[in-house]
Design a protein that fits this description.
Length: 439
């Protein structure tokens, strides 16, 4: 099938390469010249394991190309809308500028029988509005919704072998072509036995925000337990392990620590609350406000812990921060809890040095006043305190015996409950973590 992908950011670039892998002919379109140039050369403009290899392989087939010219999309039958829906400035709601622009760009390229497939995370009701716009301009074209659940760091795997597929179909004449095109696009994925949920447009849009809200709630639940543990001297990691053995609960997404960040969970729960308000059912999602607050409080608590460890003030203290990305295996620093903590400490007068295996350049762009270095050794040289804030494998595996002679004071705060407290303490370090006793 001939496929057009509109928006070649995180979602679109991965989707375009994966659709080629599934055997389709794909044109990726974006308005960003640097992005198109980089992708055309087989280089992803962001870090994603396996994507460069897949891009090279897909480009070599001759069935994948990237363009700045929307006219090159005209041959396609299926058009995936993969643009971003960031949070509006100073508002909880999602900014729909890019989605609206994508559809406006697409309409002149559409013809009878074409199917536009929404992938972006949008407030429920958006698809119905876009469908009306498309049907009015091109009566033989239609729109359906196929939400995406990919995780950064596993994006290729999540796209090629997803946990499930969701097809949100329009009512009326568009339903049949939409389902036919979606089934053809995903034939090989469905042949693997991937579960499929076929539903209406509104439900499909909701599935995505429901999934992300559930994940955020699970993380904030365990972080609320961590807050409680801090009051009682109990151990949140043991609680997560113990309740996680209950199959109804499960251990995944119960890692207490600095909480969630990134380009999805924080803005998605906020946009969901904003939409509930518009629909007059804001009370149904009031709990998400608390989920958000618990999450943000962990960052402040981390700074408090640093202050406690430094005897009441961090002003003038030398502090090393290990990790800048919002999670390991990513160079994404959007709403990164680690950088938020680093910046708060800098504003309180600490002398902060940050390092990260791959996110330093992106982090510097957002926080120009923080000091960044490229190695752990440089970051921790002579410091009063070390904070582990993103659990990169190489940081989790650091040897506390080898590091001790490099620091000024052997004190570590584990913001991700990722280090082995016994090992660090045995090496002579003061170890503290969120939701765990001083022991
Ligand atoms: C998320 C969803 O998982 C994905 O399905 C959706 O499509 C996009 O949003 P992503 O943002 O890539 O994906 O990150 P994810 O792996 O979900 O982690 C989100 C944040 O939660 C990270 O900051 C991570 O550190 C934090 N987290 C995760 C925890 O604090 N504790 C956990 O137990 C798990």
């Amino acid at each position: 099938m001939k496929i057009g992908v509109i928006g070649c950011g995180y979602l679109g670039a991965v989707h375009a390469a994966c659709m080629t892998k599934l055997g389709h002919d794909v044109v990726g379109y974006d308005v960003d010249e640097a992005k198109i140039e980089s992708l055309s050369a087989g280089k992803a403009p962001f870090y994603e394991p396996g994507l460069d290899e897949l891009l090279a392989e897909s480009l070599a087939t001759g069935r994948l190309s990237f363009t700045l010219d929307p006219a090159e999309l005209a041959d396609a039958t299926a058009y995936f809308v993969c643009v971003g829906t960031p949070q509006k400035r100073n508002e909880n709601a999602a900014d729909m500028t890019f989605v609206d622009a994508a559809v406006t760009t697409l309409i002149p390229q559409l013809s009878d029988g074409d199917v536009v497939i929404g992938k972006s995370t949008v407030p429920v009701g958006t698809a119905e509005r876009l469908l009306a716009q498309i049907e009015e301009a091109v009566p033989g074209a239609t729109l359906c919704w196929n939400p995406e659940f990919l995780r950064e760091g596993f994006a290729v795997e999540d796209t090629l072998t997803p946990d499930r597929l969701v097809f949100g179909l329009p009512v009326g004449d568009g339903a049949e072509p939409s389902e036919r095109v979606l089934r053809e696009v995903y034939t090989s994925v469905l042949d693997l036995g991937t579960p499929l949920v076929v539903t209406d447009l509104g439900t499909a849009q909701l599935v995505k925000v429901a999934a992300n809200s559930f994940l955020a709630t699970k993380i904030s639940f365990i972080n609320a337990m961590a807050e409680f543990c801090e009051a009682t001297g109990s151990d949140v990691v043991a609680i997560a392990d113990a309740i996680g053995f209950d199959e109804r609960i499960g251990r995944k997404f119960l890692n207490a620590g600095l909480g969630f960040g990134g380009g999805c969970l924080p803005k998605d729960i906020r946009a969901f609350m904003a939409r509930a308000g518009e629909l007059g059912v804001d009370q149904t999602l009031t709990f998400l406000r608390e989920v958000d607050s618990i999450n943000m409080r962990r960052r402040t608590r981390m700074v408090d812990l640093a202050r406690e460890e430094c005897g009441g003030s961090i002003a003038g203290r030398r502090i090393a921060v290990l990790g800048a990305s919002f999670k390991p295996n990513s160079d994404d620093v959007r709403d990164s809890p680690a950088l938020n903590v680093a910046e708060q400490m800098r504003l309180q007068g600490a002398d902060v040095t940050v390092t990260d295996p791959i996110a330093v350049e992106n982090a510097r762009g957002r926080f120009p006043d923080l000091r960044f270095v490229s190695s752990v050794e440089e970051a921790i040289a002579g410091v009063d305190l070390v904070l582990l804030l993103t659990e990169w494998k190489e940081y989790v595996e650091l040897d506390p015996d080898a590091l001790k002679p490099l620091v000024g004071q052997a004190r570590v705060l584990d913001g991700r409950n990722a280090l082995d407290p016994a090992r660090w303490r045995a090496a002579g370090w003061t170890y503290r973590a969120l939701g765990r006793s001083r022991a």
